[in-house]
Each structure stands twice: as structure tokens, then as C-alpha cells.
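FORM 7B: Structural annotation worksheet

SECTION A. Query
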Amino acid sequence: MSRIRFTAQAREYWLDIWLYISEHNSESIADRVYDSIESARRLLANNPLLGRVRPEIRPEATKSGGDEMTVTQSFKSMVEDRLARDPGFREALLRESIDTMLAGDVETGKAALRDYIKATIGFTALAEGVGTPSKSLIRMFGPKGNPTADNLFKVVSHLQKRAGIELHIA
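SECTION B. Predicted structure
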């Protein structure tokens, strides 16, 4: 059986993720997310060849021939990298952010939409596209932001057009 060893920074991210979820939702939800990630870690440890080859990870960062692989990138940067190169992932994140808000979890939906904006168009270009100052948009989609329906729909409309997709409520 292989081992997956986390760096000290990765362990700090784990704690930050758990604390964030517990503060914004509940400890039981944070525990479920932690358990889900831990389950995936065990699956990878038991099946090290599962998944695809990751050429973007430097060869010297992995231990070839051994049974360990070091986690080399932060989760946020991995998501940003994937958003930059995978149109399907970009579309899925945009859809998921809107679906999450419609399901009533506005904070998580805003956070996902903020990540999408930062990794794709950026707040400056979005501001030009919707006619709202970038600082206002950053505040709107920040943790304490409360965008009006008008502003939210302007942003979503612009992002849909830019992505070449149409979102519909089913």
C-alpha cells in the first residue's frame, strides 16, 4: 500500500478549510467534508495508479519508483490552473455557483462565483462589461457582500455571454 504524505502547509490548509466550513455552516458539515477528503486520500493510497498522468507537476516533485508522492500545489492554485485550461470545468463551476445560490447557500455560491471571476475574466474586465466599479464588485462577492438581484443578474448575464453558455432554471 502506498502512502500519501501531506506537507505542513497542506495540513494547515486542511485546518483552514475545516474552520471555514464550521464557521460558515456547522461542525458536522465540516466533519463530513473532512471525512470525504480523507476517504479519497485512502482510495488514492490504495490505488496509486488511479487517475491520469499529471504532466504539470514537476518530475522532481514526485518520488518515482517509491510509494510516496508529495502534494506540491495548493488546492486553490490547482483549481485556478484547471479553470485556465479546461472549458468544461469553467462551465461546471459557473453553473455550480449559480445552482448553489439558487439552493439557498448564497455564501458558498458567491465564493465559487468569485473564484470563477478571478480565474477567468477578472474583476477589472467584468467591471467594464457590466458598468459597475471593480471595487464594488469585489465587495459584492466578498464574504460580507450582499449583491442586489439587479447587480447579480447583470454579472451572471455577462459571464454567460462571455462563456458562450445559457443557464436555465429547471
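SECTION C. Observations
The CA atoms of residues 44 and 51 lie 9 Å apart. The longest strand covers residues 3-5.

SECTION D. Sign-off
Analyst initials: ____
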